[in-house]
Write a structure and sequence with these properties.
By secondary structure, the protein is of the alpha+beta class. The chain is 24% helix and 36% strand. It folds into two domains: 225 residues, P-loop containing nucleotide triphosphate hydrolases (Rossmann fold, 3-Layer(aba) Sandwich), CATH 3.40.50; 132 residues, Beta Barrel (OB fold (Dihydrolipoamide Acetyltransferase, E2P)). The strands form four sheets. It has a six-stranded mixed β-sheet with strand order 6-7-8-3-9-10, sandwiched between helices. A five-stranded antiparallel β-sheet has the order 13-12-11-14-20. Helix 3 packs across helix 4. The radius of gyration is 25 Å and the shape is elongated. The mean pLDDT is 91. The structure holds adenosine-5'-triphosphate. Adenosine-5'-triphosphate (ATP) binds next to strand 2 and helix 1.
Length: 364
């Protein structure tokens, strides 16, 4: 039995369809992210699961019980918001104790549980502080502690890390993931940050305009995008439109890019059909070299000139204009710290047939 089962959920606001025909099953202990651009419906779904918004239609089942019309305080869900929403007039202890006392837990048990949970989020010793006496990261940990203290069936996190600076955010990602594993609580995480979703989730559900575009483990979404939206939304990539050319072998097919070059892609069902297709080639799959790469290693290789180079420590971004073709953006790993391929340098770029992701063209 899934910990959470959402069926055909729908919510409209006047003429705006915020969520449409949304289905999702989440297994016990699973960490699932709802990811998508601003306005795609992530928060509305999370709030419907919490009981803060009533759906127009559909069903929400938590641990086998239909809670679609059950009020928020009877759903046994833990909530953490971007704004933390701590009670400002209560100490850390009282904030974390809040849900336990509301559940009428005996005060000695409340104390025991608050101390245990505060140690899990590494806030021992700060019990008597008020929220305004804490840093942003500490406030977020109190919010987490408050949410997990009553042992919720589901933990709902709405962009909980987005108010933190970059370094703290990365540290909190690791902490949050460890805590979630340790506690074993089923978690739904709303974010518009794809790298955060990929780093933390067992599965990701990508949404656009209130509809699911693809659900899967991060690697599947990244390497096997089901459509053009997923292919271009995740990662950094070069996008082209192409016509399917001749089949070079049973395994390879030629694609004629509108920009005038031919590339080889791995044959698949998606490229079996004729006509126009959308082509995605991720930055990190394009290699740059001074000399022509060995054809046996890279089926696609082109000569060009570096027109832009940006060094950012571990990676170097390049823009290369091909001699007779389009610009390619690529990302190289800084392996030796040398200043290779400065702007103006004549270079080769190459990529494997397997790096070419092909999808239906869809809407222009
Ligand atoms: P963000 O990442 O910006 O928070 P989101 O993916 O969480 O966006 P939602 O907040 O769920 O998106 O909103 C989905 C759609 O519903 C948007 O078009 C939004 O403008 C609309 N919407 C949300 N709440 C209301 C409301 N109370 N009244 C009218 N429209 C609303």
């Amino acid at each position: 039995m899934p910990a959470l089962s959402i069926k055909q959920l729908r919510k409209t606001y006047g003429a705006t369809t915020a969520v449409d025909s949304f289905d999702l099953d989440v297994a016990e202990g699973e960490f699932v992210s709802l990811l998508g651009p601003s306005g795609c419906g992530k928060t509305t779904i999370l709030r419907m699961v919490a009981g803060l918004i009533t759906p127009d239609s559909g069903q929400i089942v938590i641990a086998g019980k239909d809670v679609t019309h059950v009020p928020v305080h009877k759903r046994n869900v833990g909530l953490v918001f971007q704004s933390y929403a701590l009670f400002p007039h209560m100490t850390v202890f009282d904030n974390v104790a809040f849900g336990l006392r509301r559940n009428n837990l005996a005060e000695d048990k409340v104390k025991e549980r608050v101390i245990t949970v505060l140690s899990k989020v590494r806030l021992e010793g700060l019990e008597d502080r008020f929220p305004k006496q804490l840093s942003g990261g500490q406030q977020q940990r109190v919010a987490l502690a408050r949410a997990i203290a009553p042992e919720p069936t589901i933990l709902l996190l709405d962009e909980p890390l987005s108010n933190l600076d970059k370094q703290l955010r990365m540290n909190m990602q690791i902490e949050l993931k460890r805590l979630q594993r340790d506690v074993g609580v089923t978690t739904i995480f709303v974010t518009h940050d794809q790298s955060e979703a990929m780093a933390m989730s067992d599965r990701i559900c990508v949404l656009e305009s209130g509809k699911t575009q693809q659900i899967g483990v991060p690697e599947d979404l990244y390497h096997r995008p089901e459509n053009k939206f997923i292919a271009t939304f995740l990662g950094r990539s070069n996008s082209f439109t192409a016509s399917i050319g001749k089949s070079v072998s049973g395994k390879l097919v030629q694609l004629d890019l509108d920009e005038g070059i031919q590339i080889l892609a791995t044959a698949s069902d998606k490229v079996a059909s004729s006509g126009k297709v959308h082509v995605t080639i991720r930055h990190e799959t394009v290699k740059i070299s001074k000399n022509p790469p060995d054809k046996s290693k890279a089926l696609n290789r082109f000569k060009g000139k570096v027109i832009y180079r940006a060094f950012s420590g571990s990676i170097i971004d390049y823009v290369v204009t091909l001699d007779d073709g389009p610009e390619f953006l690529l990302e190289a790993t800084n392996v030796d710290g040398e200043r290779h391929a400065l702007p103006g340098a004549e270079v080769w770029i190459s990529f494997e047939a397997g790096a070419v992701l092909v999808n239906e063209l869809g809407d222009q």
